[in-house]
Batch of 3 targets.
Target 1
Amino acid sequence: MFSATEAAVFEEMDRKNDERPIHLDGTTWEMFELFLEHTFGRARTGQYTIEELANFLHFCDMYQCSHTRKFVVSRIQSTCYHFHPAQLINLAIQYNTSALFPFAFKRLVNTPITQLTAQHRELLGNDIFTTLVYVQAALEEHHRIVAAKEPKILMHTSDCQDPVGCNEDWHAIWWNGMARFLLDRRNSQPYCEAVKCFKDMQFGHVSGGCKELMFKIIGEGAAFNHADRFVDEACSRLAEKLIFESSLV
């Protein structure tokens, strides 16, 4: 029996020595380096590429590394402006990370369709691209409605000495200001930016009190908030349909 044992040849197992390392199937060297970098706190100089971050998420999902996955998501969020929204949306869907989706989708809504390449469309997929087209069309129609009809000054303040001139100038300045900021196809502005630009204009016979009152109404008005709620709802429906939240996050 003992002689048989001595004669037996045992296959050398992984991890016994440096010549027989542990093999992690499906894991690249770069992917594992990212994991070691985070786990042992080695400082990283420079920016992660979108490919590195995708590989990192893939590694976390393969080996159920919840803590590291949260670190990767936080790094993406802190540097999200370095990446195109189509890239972020693709990451969010591919790795079921809903935390990345709302910000990326809202940035995408503010990106003209003409600036999206065939590669961007491929990253987005048909559901998101189709929704994007409908959302942008609806927002453009809403812009036209808001631009064409200014909020009325229903009651003038005590410092207004010329109510007729105040009304006329408010109407003219709205059309030449807000309407232009919202509808200018060369450089259209979202609502919040349009209001900021509008405030810097000269208001003619509009009294200071009436101007202050109207901007308070604009700030609280449902006309502007409606567009934000519409985008939020479209975003939520897409996320619910396309993203199955990982148990790691």
Target 2
Amino acid sequence: MLLSGFLRSWQSVAFILVLLLSSLISVDACECCQASHFIVNQPGSSTSWKNGSPYPVSWTLGLQDGFDTFDIEITRLSRGGIYFVAKELPVTMSSLNVVLQDVPAGDDYFLICINSTAGVTYSVSSRFSVVDANATGSNPSPASAPTVTVSGVPNPLSHFAQTFGPSTNGVPHPGWSGIRNQVTAISVAVGAALIGGVMILY
């Protein structure tokens, strides 16, 4: 009786510890999801870019996204090819002006914020349009930011129109923010192993 009650008490303790460790993982994962909230603000869904005019691209990063730089590309849904706009933009920037020259008109363009080296996509804009230079409509005010010009049709052999300098190119920051998930997973594994060992001994 005493032994069986003792075993049941240890099983209860083990169950509670597992629940606590699981809650730590859930909280940590939730924090990561909230931190990694990279949003492309412009271009929006109703945006129309006119060839020959500068258009502001803007974005909002999470507080702990965990990378130093990112790249910007433009692609089209109905046709293959990528426009390589800007490489290694520092996260300290929040906007960029883009000028299109002789880019084919269409209503199925997307702007992508990406780590082109690792192939990791951070965010994708809403679908927007590109129109000819003589199309009617007002032009937006350019942002107080650098301007990059993209021209012609996509060329897989072309380079980025502008590179903003050397960096770690999106490699996660060292320190707790970069290894938090790994530490939590290891802690859970070690805790589970210890609980299993105690239950076997008793």
Target 3
Amino acid sequence: MERKFIYSLSLLFLSSLVLSLVPIVQGLLVGTNANATNRKLPVHHDLSLDFYSKTCPQVDQIVSSVTANQYRDSPASGPATIRLFFHDCFVEGCDASILIAPTPGSMNKVEREMPENINLAPEAFETINMVKAAIESKCPGVVSCADILAISARDFVHLAGGPYYPVKKGRKDSKVSLAFKVRRNLPRTNATVDDLLRLFSSKGLTARDLIALIGAHTIGFSHCDQFSSRLYDFRGTKHPDPVMDARLLKALQMSCPQSGGNTDVVAPCDVKTPFEFDHVYFGNLESNLGLLATDQALFLDPRTRPLVQEMGRDKGKFFEAFTIGMEKMGAIRIKKGKKGEIRRDCSRHLGS
């Protein structure tokens, strides 16, 4: 299935932008909201690096072979799969519930049918299906789709220039996928920093984890409807967001007109190095070059600004924090034993 990406910010614009703007300094952090402390934190189960050592010892190599080919032939698979992993883990845990396909005519809606997930790129689902088929040919009925998604996301991070980190395994696939669970568990495009801190805290993640994981936007792209309010009617003012760099604003308005635009148009979340997994994204926020309002707000808020500055100065610290954040996120509400299954087809529950 072919997906057309239209990159409307020209390379000339991007390179001139690189030369004209600058970054800033450091400080402290705080993490939890009083309301969040009353919530029950998600259950974390033990995972292990050698979970498949006897049943499918070559699992990492099989995944790596498929993801490398996919990244070469369809680079959009990278950011799409990383995003898919986030959307899976934040809704009821890392259990591949996001992969269940809708059943025509069914009244029971699945996660993929919610507006928050409608724009998840098909390349991501295709990649996971390809990896699953390759693994099933070598180790039938052994490796979960949830583990495949976690390993694939890691591989794409590394293929784009990011850190290579060990992925612990042992997740089972969920037996349900419930659409109504989605909305309250994923960040909204107009979320405040309070909203983000509260949501991440409810998953057992800190402010540092939030900043590091949001850093995956360094290779992300967004459709116009995700940021158009910043261009024309920021917070109901009938004016653009005054924080956004004027040249970026002009370029985005040309690509995303107020009405009648192409719904396929996307813009990079990192306008300077959109295809490299690096720390430049954080420097962009310091220069008011954030695409999404939620991203830019992380630099504007005094609780999270020091973390943005720290990771913007030091790629090593970003990579270290990202690795820790991915391991913590990858362990949210793991399904074990009879609470889960090992699907043969990632888009269908066993027996369906």
